[in-house]
Each structure stands twice: as C-alpha cells, then as structure tokens.
Amino acid sequence: MDLKIFDRMESEVRGYVRSFPVVFDQARGSLLFDEAGKQYIDFFSGAGTLNYGHNNPVLKRRLLDYLGTDGVVHGLDMATSAKKYFLETFERVLLKPRGWKYTLQFTGPTGTNAVEAALKLARQVKGRQNIISFTHGFHGVSAGSLAATANSKFRQAAGMALGNTTFVPYDGYMGPDVDTAAYLERLLDDPSSGLDRPAAVIVETVQGEGGVNVATWRWLRQLETLCRRHDMLLIVDDIQVGCGRTGSFFSFEQAGIQPDIVTLSKSLSGFGLPMSLVMFKPELDIWKPGAHSGTFRGNNLAFVTAAQALDSYWTSDAFATETRRKEELVRNWLENLAYSYPAAGLSVRGRGLIQGLVTPAEGGLANRIAAKAFEYGVVIETSGAHDEVLKVLPALTIEDQLLERGLEVLERSTAEILGSQGNGKVLKFGGQRR
Ligand code: PLP
Fold first, then answer.
1. What is the band of 1 on the pLDDT scale with cuts at 50, 70, 90?
2. Could you say which protein family the record assigns here (predicted)?
3. What is residue 419's predicted lDDT score, i.e. its pLDDT?
4. In this structure, which CATH number among 3.90.1150.10, 3.30.1490.100, 3.40.30.10, 3.10.20.30 belongs to the domain 4-56+317-421?
5. Among 44, 107, 110, 138, which is best to mutate for testing ligand 1, by the most ligand atoms less than 8 A from CB?
6. Which CATH number is 61-313 given?
7. Where are the beta strands (DSSP E) in 135-225?
C-alpha cells in the first residue's frame, strides 16, 4: 500500500502507522477497512476512544441531525444548547443516581488537557507543588502531565527537567507480597523520609499504557484513606479505563471510593470526537473566571454525541452487565491460551474489556504476535515498559461473533510465533466457545 506521502511529509514522530502500515479508509462498528478493501477487526479502539465502536449509527444520526439544523459547532466556553443538554444528561444519568455532587470543568479537547487542569487545580487548592504518581503511570505528554508520566521514552523527549512529582510503586509493583500502600504511608508518616508534602495523588485504577496493571479495590481504598489522613487530594485519571471500559461507567465505582478529582476523555464523546473534562468536588472550585483558558474547551459536536451515548447506554445496568459477560469470554479465552503454552511464560490480567496477555519482558514476543495478528486482520497494540503486554481492547459493543473471530486470530498468531512450544491443549476452551 502506498504510504509514501506519509513518509515524505509527516514527521518521524508518527507512531501507530508504523505498527499498522496501511491506509485506513472506512470504519464501521468493530471493523476497519483499508484502501485495498481488506477488513480488520479492531481490538485497539483508538486506545480506548471507541468504546461504542466506529461510526456508531445512533450517535451518527444524532450528530447529522444536529449539523443539519445548523447547531452551533464552535462556541469557546459559551453556553450552547448542546452543552446545556450534555450537562443535564450527565447530571441525570451519572451523578444523581449515584448521589454524587461534582462540578465540571471543560478543558482543551485531549486527555492531557484535562490532566493539566486537574494538577493545576490540586496545587492551587493545597498550596503545595508535589504530586504523587505511580510507577508505569501514564497521564499524557504535555509538560505538567508528562512530569507525572513514568515512561522514560516520553520523559526523555521533554527536553527539560520534569519535576514536582514523586513516583512510588503501584499496586503489585514489588510483587504480590509487598503492600505498596503501606510503603507510601510510611513515607508520609515520616517527616524525614525526604518526601515533599504532596498536594495530590494521581492514579489510574488500571494502567492502560503501563501494561494493564490492575489495582485491587482494597489498595484503592487504602489510597483514599491515606489521602484523607494526609490532606492530599485523590485524582483518578479515568481517561483510558473510564466510560464503561472496566464494567461500570467510572472505573473506581466498585472500590466504593469517591475521588476528589476525576479526569475523563477518550470515549467520553462516544464517537471519537475530541472532548475532555475534569470533575471535582464543588468545594474545590477555587478557579478565578477565565484563569484556565483554551479555544477548544467544549466541543459542541462532542457534547451532542456524548449526551446521546449516555442516554443510549447508561440509563440502565444492561450495557455494563454485557461488558462483564464479554470480559468473562475474553478472559477465559486468553487464560486457556496462556495455559496452552506453559513454556512460554504467558499470563493474563485485566478488568472488564481491557485484558492483557502478558509475555516475558525480553524477546519482543508480544510485538511479534501483534504484527502477525495484523497480517491476519486484527488491529491490536502492545503496552508495558517493554511492550510485553498484548492489550485486548475491543469496543464494548463488539458482537460476540467478531470478538471470537478476533480471539481466534490471536490464538493462531500466538501458535505460529511460538511454534512447537505448545502442550497441545490449545483447543480446550472451557465451554466458552460456541
Ligand atoms: N491519561 C491516561 C490514563 C491515558 O491513557 C492517556 C492517553 O492514553 C492520557 C491521559 C492522555 O490523553 P491524550 O493522549 O488524549 O492526551
């Protein structure tokens, strides 16, 4: 396929086109089509942006109707009917049923814009600079967010010192027997630990880019308790695993915690349109009018599809229940796959429809499986410090049949890459297969 124009004109910084070197032309539901008409099952979902699939017909209809009546497209942060309906819907569908009170701030359109605002607000509220962030955490690549992002590849690209952040071990980082929340507690309790008093802790409940590392509910509750005891704000960055990905709209709900600040983006608009927001407890709203600005705060087209997504998928439990059913299916499939290759050292971790097939850190196995799967028509990315985790991230709306076909491709790709290492039990799929 002819990619010459991209090579000639686009910066070396481009990334995903290298993993998926075709020109994508159309997309529908969980399928992508390249210019040659080849079909791909999407197990990547725009890194968590397409929870409701590509060109979701209900959202598209709403968007086309809105454009057809000359609804306002750009309005800075002025009041518009689209924004009004989004706010009403967010309150009615998400906040009221949970008995929550949060103030919303619309930031620039991409995830890192929300994180920047959240960190700024936390620092202002507490009058302190330091932020606690976690090993393998990813929060974006603009300066403030990047300072809280652990990955050295991104940090090195900053070209300046990244400070005012202290990294501590995420849940499970030191192995199953070390309680990393207790470690943080020790640092906080000890005035001579060297830890500057933090304004906030920023955490992902499942680290999407960091390798599908899953924090236990218990650990998240410990973290909340620590925040309360030490007068720090708890920021949950729900940009990748929020909006239903883990089987509830907010990924932290089952932990029973109530973060002070939550960042949302990616699948928030539901349609792949850029949109970000920060939710925070009303008493934290110390912003002066206009103190945090931006031309594209509040994308009206995104308000329209976001409100429709909430109305279509989140007024009952049915969608979340479906996600958890599909989680079982994926999980069983991957566990059986891992079991089939005992010598390969594979394992599975994840929550909801973000599931990782973990391969050994060395050897590039996950990348080789992903490349093979792409050849066979599945788009899937790897994550983790060594790109060692195959991240299965289908749309939440994916049909079972496509989900199983995609998993079959993964299985076949793994089998081809691992060759004779299997124990011959690859077809033992615990009744999950039809
Ligand atoms: N936070 C998390 C948890 C993310 O996964 C990402 C992106 O992957 C971001 C922030 C940054 O979002 P964006 O790439 O839209 O700036």
1. confident
2. Belongs to the class-III pyridoxal-phosphate-dependent aminotransferase family.
3. 87
4. 3.90.1150.10
5. 138
6. 3.40.640.10
7. 165-168, 198-203, 206-207, 213-214
